[in-house]
Amino acid sequence: MSRFAISARRSVVALVLLGALATVCLLFGLPWLAHRFTHSISRDAFVESHLVNLSPQVPGNVVEVYVQEQEQVKKGQLLALVDPSIYTREVELAAAKLDVMKAALAQAQADLVLLQQQVPQQVAAADAKLGAARDNETKSAAALAMVSQTVDDAVTAAQKSVDAAEAALTFASDDEHRFTALYTDGSGTQRRMQEATKSHDVAQAEQKRADALLGEAEANRKQIDIAQQELAAAKSAVAQAKADVELAKTGDAQIVVLERQVDQRTQDVAQGERALELAKTNLGYTRITAPFDCVIAKKWRHLGDYAHTGDPIFSIYNPDFMYVTVNLEETRLEGVSPGNWATLRTEAYSEPFRGRVVWIGSATGANFSLIPRDLSSGEFTYVIQRVPTRVAIERDDRWSLLKPGLSVTVDIEHGAGDKKWADEEWERERKEADVEAVSHGGPSNSGPSNSGTVPAASNSPSGVQP
User: What is the CB-side half-sphere exposure of residue 237 using CA atoms within 13 A?
Assistant: First the structure.
């Protein structure tokens, strides 16, 4: 065979090979190029969930642990127990103090009721006593006036009787002397002398009687002194009754004091009830329970460890609430819209998952870096920024195989998206993540999420994370 023929054959083979290569490139290269231009592709993506740290709100030794890592637990299930002995005693002490406060309140209320009943009665009795004392004073004054007037009139009358008796005695004495002298010298009769003597004796007796009546009238002046003493006693009784009335009225001030004391005791009881409720709440915090159906992803404390307030004991996540976070380069945002379909390829499993874009972040990840960018002197190296984008994973039979933290390669289809679906999915996730977290944010001891909880919002994200 000539060299020319060999060269021609080689040229034909080369052309055939080139044609075959061109055909292969056309068959596989064009779809690849079309896929690259119609999809935004990123390997910076991970399966995520809301990792929640369960932490005690009261410190103490972990005395009981009921679950292990990777165990699935139900909402409200007891996971661990912090030593409750101290907090039980605090509850008992608060209950005892509350009982003392309630007893003091009951005593103050009883004293107040008794005083409220007694004071009006005491005031009424004192007023009645004062009225009686005043009546007695009036009567004593009237009696004194009457006795004084009666005694004065009796003394005056007796004095006049004495004066009349003395005058009559003087006249009778003169008659007796004269008629006795006349009888002696024979000028008068014996009968006349005897009559004069008899008249003298009668006058003398009348004088003695008048003197006795005057003495008796003078003696009656002691009744005036007695009446004056009775009047003084009546006035003293009036003064004492007035003092008793004023003293009884001080019971109103005592009622006010007791009312304030009852108010204070009532406040003490309310404070004691709050202290007891707080002690019971702290005792309840010793029980670490699951806030929702979850998986124990990590156990940080073990039996016998001392857990401080806020120290995580478990890290948990909801296995029914997982998604993919794609840190999408800013150069690949064009064409990506909420509702677009995405292919999710994991390194762990050969078959890809399907998903849809829920929202596109409102800020790049650099804004949340621990060391933020400083552009005050310019930026010498251009760095493409990445925007966190959430992709909801379509559930299938392999859902249970997904684990938070798995690496994912994401291919997001370009298109107008489906805003209605994205809004509905956002609302579902908001309820799944935030409403559940709020409703079980009490004694469940759920700590803050490690993975960045999506904030609650009443409006749809409209294509960006709120």
Answer: 19
Q: Return the half-sphere exposure (C-beta side, CA atoms, 13 A cut-off) of residue 72.
A: 5
199 contact partners, CB below 8 Å, separation of at least 6:
172, 175, 176
Q: How far is CA 28 from CA 23, 25, 224, 274, 341, in A?
A: 8, 5, 147, 74, 23
The number of angstroms, rounded, from the C-alpha of 458 to the middle of its chain's C-alpha atoms is 31
Residue 63 and residue 86 in contact, taking contact as beta carbons nearer than 8 Å: no
Give me the mean pLDDT over the 285-304 stretch: 93
- Residue 331: φ, ψ to 5°: -75, -10
Q: Which residues contact 53 (CB under 8 A, 6 or more apart)?
A: 300, 312, 314, 315, 446, 447, 448, 449, 450
Closest CA to 325 of 295, 350, 355: 355
Residue pair 296/62 in contact (Cβ under 8 Å)? The answer is no
pLDDT of the residue at 29: 60
Buried b (16+ CB within 10 A) or exposed e, 167-198: ebbeebeebbeebbeebeeeebeeeebeebbe
Q: Which of 323, 331, 272 is nearest to 96 (CA)?
A: 272
* Phi and psi, residue 296, nearest 5°: -80, 105
Cα–Cα distance measured from residue 117 to residue 111, given in angstroms and rounded to the nearest whole number: 10
User: Who contacts 147 (Cβ-Cβ below 8 Å, separation ≥6)?
Assistant: 223, 224, 227
Q: State the helix-helix crossing angle for 190-219 and 85-184, rounded to 10 degrees.
A: 170
DSSP-derived secondary structure for 284-319: HHTEEE-SSSEEEEEE---TT-EE-TT--SEEEE-T
- 236-283 pLDDT, tens digit per residue, is 887 887 787 777 777 778 888 888 999 999 999 999 999 999 999 999
Report the pLDDT value the prediction gives residue 305, as an integer from 0 to 100.
94
Question: pTM for this one?
Answer: 0.60
What single string gives the DSSP state of each residue in 386-411?
Answer: EEEEEEEEPP-TTGGG--TT-EEEEE
Contact 202, 230 (CB under 8 A): no
- Please state, in angstroms and rounded to a whole number, the distance separating the CA atoms of residues 199 and 197: 5
Q: For residues 28 and 22, what is the distance between their CA atoms, to the nearest angstrom?
A: 10
Residues forming a β-bridge with 321: none
Asked if residue 384 lies in contact with residue 330, where contact means CB atoms within 8 angstroms, the answer is yes
Token pair listed for 319: 């296995």
Other beta carbons within 10 Å of 30: 10
